[in-house]
Target: Rod shape-determining protein MreD
Amino acid sequence: MNITGHGTGSIYLTILAALILSILPMPSLLDYHRPDWLALVVMYWVIALPHRVNLGTAWVAGLLLDILLGSTLGIHALSMAIMAYVAALQFQKIRNFSVWQQALVMGCISLLGQLTVFWAEHLFGVATLNYRLFWASLSTLLLWPLTFVTLRKLRRRFRIR
Model:
């Protein structure tokens, strides 16, 4: 049973949930460890269903994140597109890795995305390099197995193809 036709709505609902998690307030002590929720969800769908979720989806999701965060328009969109490109380029290899090997790849892709955001913000003169980049990538790496299992169960439950 699908939530909507062929699961497209389910995919978009998970991306919406990731956007909401990305803007939820957190205690300042934990905010430095905030995982890149949107990257986790979009990267899962890019690897699982590359014919359904692609660079365009990643770009739009990143643009929505830019709007929600009030950042310079296009910075997170560029970052999400680069991360989706890297994942889509190697999706067949990544699929064959164990979950923890995938987690390492996702941590590296997340770090690439964080560095892309830093670089783009640096061009506009609003960036400072801090260790937050590394903690966010580490928490993204650690949450990949849970995200993978949860979204795979959702994909199988609703037969999203």
Remarks:
- Helices lie at 8-23, 28-31, 37-48, 55-69, 75-89, 91-96, 99-123, 132-157.
